[in-house]
Amino acid sequence: MLAAVQFPSWLKPEVFPFWPQFPLRWYGLMYLVAFAVAWLLFKRQVKERQLGHDADEIANYFLAAIFGLIIGARLFGTLVYETSGLYWQKPWLIFWPFAEGCRFTGLAGMSFHGGVLGGLVAMLIYCKVRKLKTIEWLDMTAVAIPLGYTFGRLGNFINGELWGKVSAAPWAMVFPHAPRFSTSLDWVKDFAAKAGIELTGTLVNLPRHPSQLYEALFEGIALGLFMWLVIRKRHAFKGLATGSFVAGYGVIRFFIEYFREPDSDLGYIIALGDPTAPTNVFSTPWNFSMGQLLCFLMIIGGLGFILVRRVINRRQALAVASPSSAETSASTRRSRHR
Question: Percent of the chain scored above 90 by pLDDT?
């Protein structure tokens, strides 16, 4: 009997696993692909709208956004999600990519929500300095991001990280680096039996939801197609695309978090259900992770932004369509004195 779905043994984090002196990893390469896809989709929109911005302007905008994204993602990843206090005590390590012995490790530990915030700040500053139409540029960015984001989550999958909660679903997968569980526990025996895994030792690695693939499919491909095929073609008002992306991502990620194991150091931030419920198994919809809390703020922020921009655009449209009350009043007074 086949013991669950095994993580593909041929997938290695390194692009050249046989050449350890050249530490090129798929995760970093996938992010380069993600940025390239977003850049191409952004350029396509600039051409469609006939805005006339040259390639250098777009490239500089993306460089600023990437710079802000990396800073924000790293700050959140180290100061919010890392609970040992190491980076608060030694802040110079936040952007130090080397371990003991000067071994290059990269910047392990990044946060999507921090990256969104950092990238947004950088884009706002760039548009302000360059006197660009901020909302229009943000809208084009919001449409371009999701499809690129798909590759980042594929990089997580190749790394065999950010796995989901234990599951007996037919497509659940055994990740080689996931924590093992004691075979003496009743719930472990139950899951192992459902997954067709024979318990032969004291510890067992149970199958889990491939939550990285869930995110790549729904937060990346599904949301990306919706933004590109639906929102991009709607010219209802400026700001609709930005708010739709923020709220849409928040909704999708909020529900996927139920299948993704929270950080063990943080656990559940809000436990309205069973406060003793384990984080590696879904047991109640009323316990919420840090990711869900941040996604809830994204939903509120995105919907609020849409409402505010709709009111602003409606007022602007009315102001353009009709003369001001002051001009109308002055015209009326002149006609009475004739």
Answer: 55
